[in-house]
Design goal:
There is one protein chain. By secondary structure, this protein is mainly alpha-helical.
Length: 177
């Protein structure tokens, strides 16, 4: 199998070097998965613009989406990164694990979101009507639906890149469930 290294600053385009500098200043590091995107001269910039686009989804909801999608897609890197980010956005360790399993019993609205996201990801968008109705009955709207699907797509990109490259995880590794 082809092996992938994590590109260092001097191995990427000038544009990506500037992005690496921005990431390092903001995060204190360039996460390995972002660095791998710098194999493309435009991929990292395009992805960051997509990831940071305006949305009706809260940061906490987005982390729940990231945890569920990463679990369904079996991406250990993203499970680990979003466990850390989920805790930074108010989840406990136990809640991140429950979300990864596909429920959020501690919050009815979030539970509807998590169940919807799991169903969307597992069925590639062919969602059971009761799951969709539960999503809307919890207070989500058609705007929310579109923004949640965009957030799912965002995470699928990263899950697939890691699942193919298997670059080292540079976050505390998430618990197996």
């Amino acid at each position: 199998m082809t092996s992938f290294n994590v590109p260092q600053r001097g191995e990427v385009s000038e544009n990506n070097q500037a992005i690496f500098d921005t990431l390092k200043n903001a995060l204190g590091m360039v996460p390995n998965l972002y660095a791998v995107m710098a194999y493309s001269d435009t991929g990292l910039e395009n992805y960051l613009a997509f990831q940071n686009g305006k949305t009706s989804v809260s940061k906490k909801e987005k982390e729940a989406i990231n945890l569920v999608v990463s679990q369904v897609n079996g991406c250990r890197y993203c499970q680990s990164a979003h466990t850390v980010l989920g805790k930074m956005n108010g989840f406990t360790e136990e809640q991140t694990i429950e979300i990864r399993k596909g429920t959020a019993s501690f919050d009815a609205k979030l539970d509807a979101l998590v169940k919807f996201v799991k169903e969307v990801t597992q069925t590639k968008g062919r969602v059971n009507e009761s799951v969709l109705n539960n999503f809307f009955n919890a207070g989500y709207t058609k705007t929310s639906l579109v923004d949640v699907i965009i957030a799912i797509a965002d995470k699928v990109v990263m899950n697939y890149i890691h699942n193919i490259t298997q670059i080292p995880i540079d976050f505390p590794v998430a618990s197996e469930i």
